[in-house]
Task: inverse folding
């Protein structure tokens, strides 16, 4: 995987017009992002559409950034699988960009998706236990179902609850997929 350090990317941005795609959720992007980045969330990333709508020349590299580097690595693989090789993953992501004191755009804060999943799962487990105690013992199956879902997410890296919550209205920006601060 081709990677670039945030300082190197900032230097490149100072010399030429770079194309940086932030693959985090729109609400995360709205909260804070590298000044030179535009948002294309990983869950709706279509490599062919991104390449067709590029800001710069097709010869220039496409830089992928997320919070810390994990989601941009998955986006990198999507581009490679689609036949596009001139992509570069930004090491350390937006966290490293911000820590380096590079220019960021700040906007509205939001609960991170992981926190939303934890709150929802915890609430459903507690609700299942309380209803099983006060209403009917078989309702404890709700807690078991949520627990099994968490185990599935841990084993596979895919969380249906997170996917559902990510699509909720409060996790979208006005006007669709991407937003700015």
Result:
């Amino acid at each position: 995987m081709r990677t670039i350090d945030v300082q190197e990317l900032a230097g490149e941005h100072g010399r030429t017009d770079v194309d940086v795609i932030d693959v985090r959720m729109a609400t995360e992007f709205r909260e804070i992002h590298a000044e030179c980045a535009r948002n294309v969330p990983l869950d709706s990333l279509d490599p062919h559409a991104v390449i067709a709508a590029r800001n710069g020349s097709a010869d220039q590299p496409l830089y992928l950034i997320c919070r810390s580097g994990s989601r941009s690595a998955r986006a990198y693989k999507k581009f490679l699988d689609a036949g596009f090789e001139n992509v570069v993953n930004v090491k350390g992501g937006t966290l490293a960009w911000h820590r380096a004191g590079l220019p960021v755009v700040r906007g509205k804060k939001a609960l991170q998706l992981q926190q939303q999943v934890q709150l929802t799962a915890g609430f459903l487990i507690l609700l299942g236990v309380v209803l099983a105690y006060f209403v009917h013992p078989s309702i404890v199956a709700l807690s078991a179902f949520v627990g099994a879902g968490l185990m599935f997410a841990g084993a596979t890296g895919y969380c249906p609850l997170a996917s559902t919550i990510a699509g909720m209205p409060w996790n979208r920006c006005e006007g669709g997929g991407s937003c700015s601060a």
Q: What stands out?
A: Helices lie at 6-15, 26-31, 47-52, 70-81, 93-99, 113-134, 140-156, 160-166.
